């Protein structure tokens, strides 16, 4: 493409030198779909994210208030001469979501906002106590309800004026003082209104004016009726009755009753507030279940962990939580169990599994004359100051479904509101596809149809976008932190498409990750829609189908790290395929291919792991055999049950059997053949660390060896420096200004937090004295700044360090710096660091390796290198089990287990199992259909 400086048609980048970029200049066509490709470490992210997006973000902040601009001198400008024609930029990266238990698919995509609005507008409320449709209360009914309180009960009648709103609310206080009221309840505290109280402006407040204070007795009916009328007038149809409850030996407490002209149960008279969107929010105190604070689960003592082996008797230590304590505590617990034995006539020698349910309940939860194991542990947990005891008690706890809301997260008042017989929680339990069908089939008339028309239009539009990006199988209530990197990215992509923005530059990192080839076409159509709406779409991508359908391709290389950073080729897919300098082009024109194995390994199903009755999530009680000493692939469309089978059932069960893990596996009958393996290693895409202090060197333990090496230098010995001096996790040798991070965290409030270079150490992490000690003329900071390939040459005579660095290079990470912060790693890079760490250890020959989409972020050439490593592990007698969509990997497998046929409720079956040659013969298998083209 001929370079032009027409900023209306291209994004002109000149002299980009970020990281390993060699001062490149490129023109990216605007309002087009551009793919940046190349081997791992060739500079794709440096160009797309660290140059284009970073400059777009900097320009955006520059346009904001002075508060934001005060940080501009700290935010590093991308190392580029200039960029022209850059529109507002949005990045959608491939990273797993931060672990927030409050974020769900529906909340992250704003679908839940429309759901809450819909239920507030057309939901039909019913009484959660007696299931009747609620109706308005009359003043006579309210009087009668209050008169049913016990005689001589003290009550206050209040009119709610402000509920959960920020501000000083001076005008409200002035108004009620002018009307003659002398007291109010502000944030649950009763105050006199002699003067206007000063409230914190930026905090939320509750203000209720006290209309009357009474004692319940027969002669107050007339006064009560008048006061109720005043309350309803001030409170716009709603009032509160604060009832004082006195119990002997306790201080009086007050409880509020809501009375409303608008909503009340005709049977029990219980009053309800008018429906509002926040009533359906589990992130608001007005909607969240008060017991679990809207989380849906509580961290509590788990009977399964307290009694891990039910075949033991109480005497033999069945109650693990009351076993193996110090002599005094143990004697106390022994006496407790003896007393229990006498009281309930139970033999302490009886296996726990044979005890009657009533006895087990009394033992665990207590009875009239016995405290119970769980209440006892709770009491100690609340009182202990010993960290050792606390840690032991925590080992008997787990997250358990909230017993009050049953995992629904909301108050009962919100859960009793229905649309077409479904509560908002029941909608959240539906998949995207099912929920769209529900709303399309919703029959409304009259006022309901008018009010909901626009809401339903927006709701259905957002659900359609989710389906278009291949997330039809995901439930609305699924926690965001359980999404894979690819799923999280596509969730954000659907949100952006739904926003309808125009004139934006979108930068995406491998949006096809996690998608079966069948779903790629639909995703590509979404990206094309984004482009056709007048946006520029820039993808980092390795998927052949997407590359072939791009408008423009930029191929970086020719190698990784220092050998990369140049533009090898650019143009249309056809021009790239015809360019002999382009490694990508050679794979596109099939000059280079990933070869099939010369001979597949023999399959012996008698020597296998057999999962029987797998029925977690959408699995249909399937039986699956995984042949050992093979390279085995689990395939299937998105949502077919692959992760549930491999990660939730197989890995958790093996971790429980081999390592005593407390994490419960998914529902299944049993697994046969566990004795045939002695080690299981799961390599997933979760982050290797949450702060810049974590990096590839620290995670692989190479840094421990490097620190020891520096401590053994002559200069370090003279100064008395130990290996601890070179740790940036403890004070001494690190830079104290940034606590050894090399960067400082800036809380932007209106934007995601940013990390900026520490001005004290200039990103070197250490103080001046520490950096004066060198090994082969390199300081410890210089070593952390080395690429893995360079570090291999530097440490080639140190076998232990070289072994770790060699495995990092073998998995395609030779381009990465040893000290690269974990916060900047993609999910695929984090996974390969974990893989390299495991590969650097001694294999047993009976190890099961579990990998979830290991080709994430890999070019064709990198995949070929990775396959050599995985097959080498199998040649050593180990088993490699891979969840994978990439057909170049699947075609080299010894054995394939294909799940489906569809995702969600239409999946969970074994569609086919066998060699690739057998799979292509199964017409029902989508994997088989696409595999035919590469075999």
Your description of this structure?
The chain has 935 residues and is α/β, with parallel strands linked by helices. The protein has six domains: 10-92 and 484-588, P-loop containing nucleotide triphosphate hydrolases (Rossmann fold, 3-Layer(aba) Sandwich); 105-122 and 407-480, ABC transporter ATPase like fold, CATH 1.20.1580; 136-269, Ribulose 1,5 Bisphosphate Carboxylase/Oxygenase (2-Layer Sandwich), CATH 3.30.190; 310-399, Helicase, Ruva Protein, domain 3; 608-685 and 863-931, Rossmann fold, CATH 3.40.50.300; 696-822, ABC transporter ATPase  like domain (ABC transporter ATPase like fold, Up-down Bundle), CATH 1.20.1580. It is 34% helix and 19% strand. The chain is built from 34 helices and 32 strands. Strand 8 (183-186) and strand 9 (189-192) form a beta hairpin. Helix 28 (788-794) runs antiparallel to helix 29 and helix 29 (799-810) crosses helix 30. The two termini are 36 Å apart. 44% of the residues are buried. The mean pLDDT is 90.
Question: What is the alpha-carbon Rg in Å?
Answer: 33 Å
Describe the main β-sheet briefly.
6 strands, mixed
In CATH, what is the class of the largest domain? Answer: Alpha Beta
Overall pLDDT, averaged? 90
Shape: globular
First-to-last CA distance? 36 Å
Structural class: alpha/beta
Ranges where pLDDT stays below 50 over 5 or more residues in a row are none
């Amino acid at each position: 493409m001929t370079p032009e400086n027409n900023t209306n048609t291209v994004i002109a980048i000149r002299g980009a030198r970020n990281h390993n970029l060699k001062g490149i200049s490129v023109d990216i066509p605007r309002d087009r779909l551009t793919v940046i490709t190349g081997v791992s470490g060739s500079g794709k992210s440096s160009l797309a994210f660290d140059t284009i997006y970073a400059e777009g973000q900097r320009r955006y902040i520059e346009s904001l208030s002075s508060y934001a601009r005060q940080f501009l001198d700290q935010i590093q400008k991308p190392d580029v001469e200039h960029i022209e024609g850059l529109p507002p930029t949005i990045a959608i990266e491939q990273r797993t979501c931060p672990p927030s238990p409050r974020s769900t698919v529906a909340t992250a995509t704003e679908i839940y906002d429309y759901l809450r609005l819909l239920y507030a507008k057309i939901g039909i409320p019913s009484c959660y106590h007696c299931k009747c449709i609620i109706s308005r209360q009359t003043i006579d009914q309210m009087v009668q309800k209050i008169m049913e309180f016990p005689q001589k009960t003290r009550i206050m009648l209040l009119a709610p004026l402000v509920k959960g709103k920020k501000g000083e609310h001076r005008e409200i206080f002035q108004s009620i003082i002018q009307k003659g009221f002398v007291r109010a309840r502000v944030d649950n505290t009763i105050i006199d209104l002699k003067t206007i109280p000063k409230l914190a402006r930026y905090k939320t407040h509750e203000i209720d004016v006290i209309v009357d204070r009474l004692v319940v007795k027969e002669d107050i009916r007339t006064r009560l009726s008048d006061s109720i009328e005043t309350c309803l007038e001030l409170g716009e149809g709603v009032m509160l009755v604060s009832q004082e409850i006195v119990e002997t030996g306790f201080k009086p407490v007050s409880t509020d009753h809501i009375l409303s002209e608008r909503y009340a149960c005709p049977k029990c008279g219980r009053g309800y507030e008018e429906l509002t969107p926040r009533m359906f929010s589990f992130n608001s105190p007005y909607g969240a279940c008060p017991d679990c604070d809207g989380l849906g689960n509580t961290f509590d003592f788990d009977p399964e962990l307290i009694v891990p082996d039910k075949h033991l008797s109480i005497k033999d230590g069945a109650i693990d939580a009351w076993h193996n304590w110090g002599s005094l505590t143990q004697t106390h617990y022994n006496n407790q169990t003896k007393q229990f034995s006498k009281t309930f006539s139970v033999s302490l020698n009886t296996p726990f599994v044979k005890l009657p349910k009533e006895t087990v309940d009394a033992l665990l939860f207590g009875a009239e004359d016995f405290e119970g194991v769980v209440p006892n542990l709770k009491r100690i947990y609340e009182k202990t100051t010993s960290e050792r005891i606390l840690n032991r008690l925590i080992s008997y706890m787990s997250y358990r479904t909230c017993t009050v809301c049953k995992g629904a997260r909301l108050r009962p008042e919100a859960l009793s509101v229905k649309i077409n017989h479904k509560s908002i929680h029941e909608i959240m339990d539906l998949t995207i596809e099912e929920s769209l069908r529900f709303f399309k089939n919703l029959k409304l008339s009259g006022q309901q149809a008018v009010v909901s028309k626009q809401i339903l239009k927006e709701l259905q539009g957002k659900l359609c976008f989710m389906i278009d990006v291949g997330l039809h199988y995901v439930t609305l209530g699924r926690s965001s932190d359980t999404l894979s990197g690819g799923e999280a990215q596509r969730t954000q992509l659907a949100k952006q498409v739904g926003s309808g923005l125009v004139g934006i530059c979108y930068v995406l990192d491998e949006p096809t990750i996690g998608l079966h080839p069948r779903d790629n076409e639909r995703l590509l159509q979404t990206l094309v829609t984004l482009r056709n709406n007048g946006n520029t779409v820039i993808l980092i991508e390795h998927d052949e189908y997407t590359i072939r359908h791009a408008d423009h391709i930029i191929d970086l290389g020719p190698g990784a790290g220092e050998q990369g950073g140049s533009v090898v080729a650019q143009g249309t897919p056809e021009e790239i395929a015809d360019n002999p300098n382009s490694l990508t082009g050679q794979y596109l024109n099939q000059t280079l291919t990933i070869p099939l194995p010369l001979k597949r390994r023999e399959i012996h199903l008698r020597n296998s792991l057999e999962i029987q009755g797998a029925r977690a999530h959408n699995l249909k009680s399937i039986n699956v055999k995984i042949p050992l000493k093979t390279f085995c692939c689990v395939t299937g469309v998105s949502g077919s049950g692959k992760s549930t089978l491999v990660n939730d059932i197989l890995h958790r069960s093996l971790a429980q059997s081999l390592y005593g893990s407390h994490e419960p596996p998914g529902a299944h009958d049993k697994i046969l053949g566990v004795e045939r393996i002695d080690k299981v290693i799961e390599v997933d895409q979760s982050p290797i660390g949450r702060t810049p202090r974590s990096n590839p060197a620290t995670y692989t333990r190479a840094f421990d060896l490097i620190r020891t090496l520096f401590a053994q230098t002559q200069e370090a010995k003279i100064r008395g420096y130990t290996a601890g001096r070179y740790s940036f996790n403890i004070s001494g040798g690190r830079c104290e200004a940034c606590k050894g991070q090399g960067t400082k965290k800036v809380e932007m409030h209106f934007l995601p937090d940013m990390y900026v270079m520490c001005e004290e150490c200039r990103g070197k992490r250490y103080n001046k004295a520490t950096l004066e000690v060198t090994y082969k003329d390199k300081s410890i900071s210089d070593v952390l700044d080395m690429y893995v390939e360079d570090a291999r040459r530097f440490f080639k005579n140190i076998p232990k360090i070289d072994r770790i660095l060699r495995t990092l290079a073998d998995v395609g990470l030779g381009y990465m710096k040893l000290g690269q912060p974990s916060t900047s790693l993609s999910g695929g890079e984090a996974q390969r660091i974990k893989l390299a760490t495991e590969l650097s250890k001694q294999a047993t020959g009976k190890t099961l390796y579990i990998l979830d989409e290991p080709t994430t972020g890999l070019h064709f050439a990198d995949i070929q290198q990775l396959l050599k490593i995985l097959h080498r592990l199998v040649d050593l007698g180990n088993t490699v089990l891979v969840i994978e969509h990439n057909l170049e990997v699947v075609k080299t497998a010894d054995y394939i287990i294909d799940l489906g046929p569809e995702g969600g409720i239409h999946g969970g079956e074994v569609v086919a199992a066998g060699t690739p040659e057998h799979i292509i013969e199964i017409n029902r298998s989508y994997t088989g259909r696409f595999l035919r083209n590469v075999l």
